[in-house]
Write a structure and sequence with these properties.
The chain has eight helices and 24 strands. It is an alpha/beta fold and 370 residues long.
């Protein structure tokens, strides 16, 4: 029996793999199983869709049935995987089992919500999928003052976006935005550009309580904020629920060919850990999906990551990052009226860069790739 390739997850990782594989093999069945409606949409746009006035429906590129038709695959939407029998190669769907020849876990990651007290913790919003965006959009439409928890890449993007229309306070335990991604000078310029955002650094939210029709946030420094909505963007944690029986650390451990510790089982995207790293960005996920498609089609292919650029979607002060931008590096700063370029130097070598404003890091990316 020609058992299908089963992909659990219909995000960028799962659908990119399915489409890439179908170009290499037109006949073997491919089944994508997803707990949501299986709509294909650009996830990176979620963090700046509210400011653009975009509805969730406007973000959808294809429905599940349209993806299935165009890619000649089967998509099972609104289908929950309750377990996996790795020995018998069966995916348990509750009322039935789905056999697989090869299984790919592309189950993504879930938002980290720090432990907080209070009677309104359940009202904290996250933004990790299209369903989250539907809820967030409805809540923000009725809000005037929004609290954003987290000053990393996504939190900063969300604060920038919401501040186009609402009052925003951003709370972060660190001393500046993009602490783990960019040098202090980039953070300072970005914070200056976001002058309408009230930054509260060096503290954290310890409780969320109902306060009439609003929410009261208590901070670790004893201060309180009364807001209409709270959005948490404190990071992501790989989903490991279905990885019982597989080697895991932060994510599902895979080798260079995306193979897990069990035969015929692979992991891809935000849930996968390769060389000790989880890389939740579009470029490494796309590279991984294309390499895995080759492997599944009969040509074992190791994924290779070169220096990968990351763009922070903050139009008032665009930021680009590439290579190594954290840890022990020396920064060489060049700034003019157009913007800023920061070169990360380690042992006399260029290992990364960060640019801001009108400066573009593409030329430096090519230098990193030499």
């Amino acid at each position: 029996m020609n058992r299908p390739i089963v992909i659990i997850g219909s995000g960028h990782a799962g659908y990119t793999l399915a489409r890439a594989y179908r170009k290499l093999n037109r006949t073997r069945p491919v089944v994508v199983v997803t707990a949501d409606d299986g709509a294909d949409y650009p996830k990176p746009q979620l963090s700046h869709a509210f400011g653009n006035g975009a509805s969730a429906e406007r973000l959808i590129r294809q429905t599940a049935s349209e993806v299935a038709f165009d890619a000649s695959i089967m998509v099972l939407p609104h289908t929950t995987v309750t377990g996996i029998d790795f020995d018998r190669q069966l995916v348990d769907l509750g009322q039935r089992s789905l056999p697989y020849g090869e299984l790919v876990l592309a189950v993504g990651a879930r938002p980290i919500v720090p432990t907080m007290a209070g009677d309104a913790v359940a009202a904290v919003l996250t933004l990790n999928n299209l369903g989250d965006y539907r809820v967030l959009r409805e809540r923000l439409d009725a809000s005037e003052h929004v609290l954003v928890i987290g000053g990393g890449l996504i939190g900063t993007e969300i604060a920038h976006d919401i501040a186009r229309h609402k009052r925003v306070t951003l709370v972060d335990v660190n001393a500046r935005v993009l602490l783990k991604q960019a040098p202090p000078v980039i953070s300072a310029r970005l914070q200056s550009a976001l002058g309408d955002v009230d930054f509260r650094f060096g503290t954290q939210v310890t409780a969320i309580d109902h306060d009439g029709g609003r929410l009261r946030a208590t901070l670790a420094d004893g201060d309180t904020l009364t807001v209409d909505a709270v959005v948490c963007a404190a990071g992501l944690r790989p989903r490991l629920d279905l990885a019982q029986g597989l080697d895991t650390a932060t994510g599902i451990i895979v080798d260079a060919e995306l193979r897990t510790s069990r035969e015929h089982v692979y992991a891809l995207g935000d849930c996968a850990e390769i060389d000790g790293r989880v890389l939740p960005y579009l470029q490494p996920i796309t590279l991984s999906a294309n390499a895995l498609a080759q492997t599944l089609a009969g040509t074992p292919t190791a994924v290779a990551f070169g220096p990968m650029p990351v763009a922070v979607k903050t139009p008032r002060y665009p930021v680009q990052l590439g290579g190594i931008t954290d840890g022990e590096v020396d920064w060489q700063i060049d700034e003019d009226s157009r913007g800023l370029t920061a070169r990360a130097i380690r042992d006399g070598q260029l290992v990364g860069y960060a640019t801001g404003g009108g400066h573009n890091g593409f030329r430096l990316l090519s230098q990193l790739m030499r």
